[in-house]
Amino acid sequence: MIDKNQARLRRARKTRAKIAELKSVRLSVHRTNCHIYAQVISACGSKVLAAASTLETEVRKDLGNGGNVGAAAAIGKLIAERAIKAGIEQVAFDRSGFQY
Q1: What gap in Å lies between CA 29 and CA 36, rounded to an integer?
Q2: What stretch of H or E contains 18?
């Protein structure tokens, strides 16, 4: 019997395999109750090209607690700016098996 976490990891593997097949840069998002983290990862999967999270001091002073919708919007805007600065215009969204 597959438990909830194993099912999520299976979904994540399938998604990452499809993204690797497309040879696309991926956007990985991790969400906890208190913080949101986003990373743009290279097509080969070995290098982080851009990152943003609610732990950063300039983000924290604007938002306070970083686990809400406003924080998600701020991190989305910040990771987009950093990705464009790094020369990345298109990414594949890697939701790590979660429903977003």
Answers
A1: 7
A2: helix 4-22
Tokens standing for residue 83: 């990705």
* Secondary-structure percent of the chain, ordered helix, strand, coil, rounded to 5: 45, 20, 35
Q: Cα dist. 22→26, 29, 62 in Å?
A: 10, 19, 37
The residue whose two tokens read 């993204």 is: 19
Statement: the pTM of the whole predicted model exceeds 0.85: no
Strands 92-94, 26-31: parallel, antiparallel or unpaired by DSSP? Answer: parallel
Q: Contact at 8 Å (CB) between 8 and 19?
A: no
Looking at per-residue confidence, does 67 or 43 come out higher? 43
Query: Which tokens hold the place of 34?
Result: 């208190």
